[in-house]
Amino acid sequence: MQERYAYYPGCLASLSQKELDSSTRAIAKKLEIELVEMPSVTCCGAGDIHEAKPDYYLHISARILGQAEQSGCDTILTICNVCTLNLRQANMALKEDAALLNRVNDNLKEVGATTYQGGVDVRHLLWEVSAGEGYERFKSIAVKSLEGLKVAPFYGCQILRPAKILGFEDSDRPESLERLIRACGAEPIDYPAKVKCCGFPIVLAREDVALGELVQPLEQAMDAGADVIVTPCPLCHLSLDAWQRKAAAYSGREFGIPILHLSQLLGAAAGIEESELKFKRHVTRLSPSVKAKLQVPSVVGTKV
Amino acid sequence: MATIENAHFTTLKGAYDTETMEATLKVRRFDPETAKSRFDTFTVTIPVTATVLDALDAIKDTCDGTLSYRKSCRMSVCGSCGMRVDGGAALACKVSMRKFVEAGHTITVSPMGNLPVIKDLVVDMDPFWSKIRAIKPYLDTKGADTPAKEWRIAPVDTALIHKESLCILCGCCVSECNSMESDPEFLGPAALAKAYRFVGDARDQDTRERLRDLNGAHGIWDCTRCYFCNQRCPKGVDPRDAIAKLGAESFKEGFTGDEGAKHAKVFVDSTYKGGYLRETELVPKTIGPVNALKDIPFALQLARAGKVPNPLTPHKAKDNDEVKRLWKLLEKEAKGQPRRATATHPDAVQEG
User: Fold this and answer.
1) How far apart are CA B246 and CA B244, in angstroms?
2) Residues B32-42, mean pLDDT to the nearest whole number
3) Do A249 and A166 fall into the same domain?
């Protein structure tokens, strides 16, 4: 774990998933890590720009990596699976190919943008707090035990696969989320779809195909007795949370299971308030029993 | 350790003394006559160098001769022995047993996913082959005469399709394809990687027709980017990357009408306009304004939770003029380059 990170919240945390940004900032403060802003960065392209315009994708990624470098940080902190894969994938390509990096930098120079020297790593919040010093530091701030809360971890794809770009843990048998759930005093629930896809990348273009994927984690997590699902990715969150009713209509089954951002679960265990965790910004609302188990101050019904 | 005594390894035994180990495997069985499946557990003595395939051979030779699975080359070339080891598709001949035995772990062997099971570990590959056939897995030179001598292409052009040419058609990528589970008609990672192998081939003259077909229903935009295919491929083909390359080729050729392509275009345009994604433009520009209107009740659910950003005040990154200039520079650069690699028919080339 670093003392300073170049903070890359990505589009969703800055727009529709603002609760992810505010809960991340709150947990970073508790962990005493500095999040350095990068006001000129663009979207990572979400895989879409990589697919449509791969050369442009490499250039905007180099510009983002270069800005982190210029800020004096050697690590970008991400809070989204898709940002993590896209930035790491470009970073790997640029670092492996000096001729490519030179050409990209020549172009960046020509348009007056920051160049990139190859000195930055990209790491997700999950990786930083689930192992080593970061994990110890999190345990020291997890003052509340979320006892009795059954949490289904949902990893999402692009924090696990492809392992040669991500590679933090065994992509078939990950355990970082389980470790953190236990550190929060809660109980991790196991189910096969926790490493599968939520369908989000194609939910607009191929809604039926996406919903066929989305129903699997919802059904399995509920069948395994989970109170909530926690995910490190805001796209998975949006899919599991906002598209949950569509998944219910698709499968003919009621769900109503609340979905937490990783930072919200950690935040609840660290005693952070609703004003920063913002559970009220979820489409699938917390049930009274889940609210009670999360023990969040000022959540309606559980005034502390 | 003892040397091997069972019949299966008599040939090996004569060749060299092999240290052995005892391994336990749980194997999924399926009997087509009763349509019933079950798990059988077997313990066999195998060399310490044995693969999962060697262990299955030992089971077949010494425990149960009715166990069915496919195999041929035993060296990760023929692509016959694709199956799931602890839930993940792999070539049985490429996975060593030793680490499992040393960890005291009983592996579970089961048939590949997304394909019907015929018996035990044998799957019906017909749906797989029909998709490979559907992408026209051969060079189409549009009626040009068969060259009198070999048709060479430059190493730089071969490199474009090198990874995709490594495919051994084993089906491991298809086994865990999340989109195919949901849409069985999805062409899937193996067929699409093969499709790129021809779209990217400098000699092929059928690029536009190929891309047009791949942009329809069950084509490239069905891919949900779960990356299981890249993870499972035993030969480093990286099918998902091939699908992304087909997307890029589609954009070059102007095939941008599929909802998937429109979705991608919103991301490209958003970075140009203001830096971050314009979420409120994503829905109408992907599925069209009429379909977006039909989805208003859904949009209201999102709005109530504060999840619809104000479209009138889109996010503006600082210094985004740099990005605009960058885009223009790259588009200009791309215009000066040929859209795709091409190779001249050898009979038209003057021998130097």
Assistant:
1) 5
2) 97
3) yes
Residue A304 belongs to some domain of the structure: no
- Cβ contact A55–B330 (<8 Å): yes
pLDDT of residue B132: 98
Q: Which CATH number is A241's domain given?
A: 3.40.50.11810
Q: Supply the CATH classification number for the domain B126-252.
A: 1.10.1060.10
- Within this chain, do residues A114 and A155 fall inside the same structural domain, yes or no? no
Tell me the C-alpha distance between A260 and A241, whole Å: 9
β partners of residue B117: B123
Q: Does B308 touch chain A (CB under 8 A)?
A: yes
A-B CB pairs within 8 A amount to 211
In a domain, A35, yes or no: yes
Cβ pair B182:A210 closer than 8 A: yes
pTM over 0.90? The answer is yes
Q: Is the pLDDT of residue B11 over 60?
A: no
Residue among A209, A264, A286 with most chain B CBs within 10 A, to mutate: A209
Same domain, A161 and A118: no
Looking at the partner chain, which of B224, B266, B305 has a beta carbon nearest the beta carbon of A213? B224
Q: Are residues A73 and A191 in the same domain?
A: no
Among B224, B251, B283, whose Cβ lies nearest the Cβ of A201? B224
Rounded-to-integer distance, Cα A207 and Cα A104, Å: 36
Dump strand ranges (E) for chain B. Answer: 20-31, 36-47, 82-85, 88-91, 107-110, 117-119, 122-123
pLDDT band at B311 (very low <50, low <70, confident <90, very high): confident
Average pLDDT over residues A85-101: 98
Tell which of A125, A158, A187 closes a domain. A125
Please state whether the peptide bond connecting residue A162 to the residue before it is cis, i.e. omega within 30 degrees of 0. Answer: yes
> Could B279 and A11 be called an inter-chain contact, meaning their C-beta atoms sit closer than 8 Å?
yes
Contact A157 B226 (CB under 8 A): yes
Q: Could you tell me if A80 and A173 lie in one domain? A: no
Mean pLDDT score, B36-47: 97
Tell me, yes or no, whether A132 and A235 share the same domain.
Answer: yes
**Residue A154: inside a domain, yes or no?**
yes
Which residue range is the domain that position A133 belongs to? 126-294
Judged by CB atoms within 8 Å, which residues 97-126 of A form the interface with B? 107-108, 110-113
Q: Does B226 touch chain A (CB under 8 A)?
A: yes
> What is the ipTM, given to two decimal places?
0.95
Instruction: Report the alpha-carbon distance of residue B57 to residue B71 in Å, rounded.
Output: 10
- My answer on whether A111 and A136 are in the same domain is no
Separation CA B161–CA B193 (nearest Å): 9
Is-contact A233 A244, C-beta < 8 A? no
Complete DSSP assignment for B175-237 = HT-HHHHH-TTS-HHHHHHHHHHHHT-TT-S-HHHHHHHHTSTTSGGG-----HHHHH-TT--
Rounded-to-integer distance, Cα B230 and Cα B242, Å: 10
What CATH code is assigned to B7-123? 3.10.20.30
pLDDT range class, residue B17, cuts 50, 70, 90: low
Closest to A10 in 3D by CA, of A229, A283, A234: A234
**Does residue B107 sit in helix, strand or coil?**
strand
For A300-304, what is the mean pLDDT? Answer: 43
**Closest alpha carbon to A91 in A68, A110, A112, A118:** A118
Backbone angles phi, psi at B247, to 5 degrees: -65, -45
